[in-house]
Amino acid sequence: MYRLLACIALILATVTAMDRVLASALGDLLLRSSDRFMAIYRPVEPEDVPAAKPDRQPAGRTDETPGALMVKAALASAPGQAARPTRGPADVLVLGNSRADNHFPVSTLQDMTCGRALNLGMGGAPTVLSALLWEDYVERHGAPRLLVLEPTGLVDNPHDLADLPLLAYYSPRIDAFVRQENRELWMANHAFNLMTFNNNQTMRLIAGLLKPAADRTLVGAIPEPMKAQLAAAPEEMMTAADANWQAMDRIIRSAQSQGTRVAVVITPYFPTYAGKLKNFDAFFAEMRSRLPSGVTVIDARRAVDKDELFMDALHVNEDGVRAMFAALEPELRPLGSCPVDAIASLTAAGTVVGTAAGTVEGAASTH
Amino acid sequence: MSFTSLNFLLFITVFSAGFMALARTRAFTPFLLVASYIFYGYWDYRFCALLALSTFIDFYCGLKIADSPDRQTKKLYLFISLGANLGMLFFFKYYNFFADSAEIALASLGIDVGRRTLDILLPVGISFYTFQNLSYGIDLYTGEVKQPERSLVRYATFVAFFPQLVAGPIVRARDLLPQIQQRPRDIPFEERFAGLEKVIWGYFLKIGLADNAAVVVDARFHQPEFFNALQHVIGLVCFSLQIYGDFAGYSLIAIGLAQIFGYTMCQNFARPYFATGMRDFWRRWHISLSTWFRDYVYVPMGGSRTRWLRIRNVVITMLISGLWHGANWTFVLWGALHGGLMLVEDGVRRLAAVSPVRLSGPMLAAGRLVMIGLVFIVVTLTWLPFRADSLQTVWTILGIITHGDFGLQQGNLQASSLLRVAVAGLIVLMVDALIERGAGRRYAGTNVVARSMACSALILVMLLFGSFANHAFIYFQF
Known about the structure:
The structure holds two protein chains of two kinds.
Chain A: H1 2-31, H2 38-41, H3 66-76, E1 92-95, H4 98-103, H5 106-113, E2 117-119, H6 127-141, E3 146-149, H7 172-181, H8 183-191, H9 200-210, H10 224-232, H11 242-257, E4 261-266, H12 271-276, H13 280-290, E5 295-299, H14 318-332, H15 340-349, H16 351-357, E6 365-366
Parallel strand pairs in A: 1-2, 1-3, 3-4, 4-5
Antiparallel strand pairs in A: 5-6
Helix pairs in contact in A: 6-11, 7-8, 14-16
Chain B: H1 6-22, H2 28-41, H3 45-67, H4 71-108, H5 126-142, H6 152-160, H7 173-182, H8 189-222, H9 229-260, H10 278-284, H11 287-298, H12 307-325, H13 329-354, H14 361-387, H15 391-403, H16 415-436, H17 439-444, H18 448-465
Helix pairs in contact in B: 1-2, 2-3, 2-6, 3-4, 3-5, 3-6, 4-5, 6-7, 8-9, 8-16, 8-18, 9-14, 9-15, 11-12, 12-13, 13-14
């Protein structure tokens, strides 16, 4: 029996040593992935961090109109070049859950805002997790010019870790959060570091090593059985935990304090499902009332209404994203860094955009 | 407690310490009994009372069967034992099924009898220990077991022996009782190490293969309408892998643990997906159950003495086997399908026997491969009713598959879990194929350090690709 125990000790020692070596190698390898989350943690070269951001609105200053900022942006850069710097923080950062992840393709966003965009939307992520990603990003890269926040993560369970645990390997902040929320998982991950990489996110990162990360827009249409199921589903309430409200407030105040414009964009809901949400309007009205001043709210909940433009109850498909962006454009484009000419041509373009924009409920409003 | 829980890790550590301290003393058997009841009672302490009651009845009946001077009295006590065991099994496992089925049948005739089902908790592993107890009484009656166990503690330890209590293998009294009576053997280190390897391989089958496959399977069976034919075929293949990984994994952990502590248990799985026919499949799948049914149901009914007896007995045995697995018509259908397939195979064999064509050499090898593939496909299809929660689900999935939409679907298809299943499945296929070709013996002669490294590599793969969501073993419900 003692020889067997010695063998068990040998196996454990080998596993522990190899676990450390392999986890370290895997951690370094995955940093090279083109996956968007690795953009947060990839080491920043000294010249990457801009010393000053002359076109950024200083904290607390509200005397400059958006129009003046757009003119500045147009004068500061030639279209398509300096407006899309390859280094420094992204111009536009997207935060939220899968509705942010799947509804804001980076390429479309870049075209619309004339700036480099990064989508940090994470499937199933409550706003609490978005706040952690925001803090990690700003700490390492500086603040973006524009933050697009899809707020549906407010109703997600604030204790749900989604795909976050892998990032704990790179972020002490996230590691501390995982420890607070799921001590058993945290202990397992620290006992065997390879377990940190045992999740779906690793698969995506590995895919990102093999090919450049593509937009994560969904393809397909909502199946008939799902429509029937949604039609037969009971009514439900949208509720948000305090932790999520506080996290949203923290993100917005932090962004504003660093001169970042904030746009809260509520993306479309499948109409049948929206009809089942008893407090659908009241919830988002409450959300508006909680937002600090200076935040642009773009309510596109009903901007897409055709069944074939949805993938499921909460996500639009490729065509749905196109329709959604057509509706968002008049409000979203001015928040970007496009030259004034582009804005003017947009205004002159007239009917198509105007018609689509007409579906954005109540248009954009600034709080 | 489940083998995959942290509590079990703690339990087995304490048990090992106790084993090392007490294995040579008279206190070991009571210690093993207490440990086994703690292991079982961890699910629900009330289950222990039922286990104890069943144990006591069979212990008492066993003594009476052995000591009674005449055949009539022996038969009386055998019937008491059979009645008590089957009565408990029927009440806890089948009462609601039959009551529900009767209600539906009567309702279809326009007779409303109201709700007659009861709120009954199914004790974990009741089918396994009931069969173990039944075989003890029958073996004493038929003389297969010469002497009854006269110590209640030893008999209770045999019934409750924790490695195999809740999901088998179903060990016969003649195999395990003598080992309990003699206390653990002082086995060579190589044998203990082989036990450890079995445990690690069992965990790999469960955590690496079965639990990852479960994610894919559960999604498809939970909302079958959302998946097309291709996705359901993938789901069925994954269930084939899941049930093999889950059950063979449990059996290996049980057999390996017993082996580490000096007890020998029968093999329960012998690479069933390498079977070249249905008969061969049942020689490799859940061996302890199929041999139990062979010895206590099939043979006593006349076996295959005539062609008619063979047909009747195969059908009855497979139907009972289906019902043993669960109180649902889906399991009866599964049993009927297997019975039918075995009879079809009988017919094909008869035709082949009179055929002038004889395969040899490469043609024979190719034919074997084709048969392995064919048997896997057929067995995989029969798992559909086994996994489905109702016949309605079976028809829904069959309808989707026959509709023939084999296009690539978009959306949440558990791609990550599928990748993990592919990794684990390839490793299992490779290892099983090597063992099938006789590499096991050569491997057993390899240096222990090299084998320890292989175990370490397997654990590392598990850490990276395993599913640690702690899914219950499928066979616990049986």
